[in-house]
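FW: tagging you since you asked about this chain on Friday. Here's the raw sequence from the shared folder, copied in full. Didn't touch anything.
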Amino acid sequence: MRIVIHYLEGIDGVAIFPIIGIFIFFSFFLGLLYYVYRMDKGFISDMANLPLGNDPEQNEISNKNTDIDHGRKYN
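HL: got it, structure written out here
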């Protein structure tokens, strides 16, 4: 590790790279948080109940009550 530190100390401007990395890291998660916050609550509910919706009659009722088409094909 001492060798790596020795070589990095000789590079001018190397301290900016960790700052850029932290900025990208936090920007990604702030963007993801914003996306999740703005997501449609009906879509989240549909996705949460998706593995549990095995009753075909209940699926038909829930399909009639939704206004949003998420690209799923129903028979």
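FW: Residues 2-64 form one domain.
HL: agreed, and The chain has one domain: 2-64.
FW: great, closing this out.
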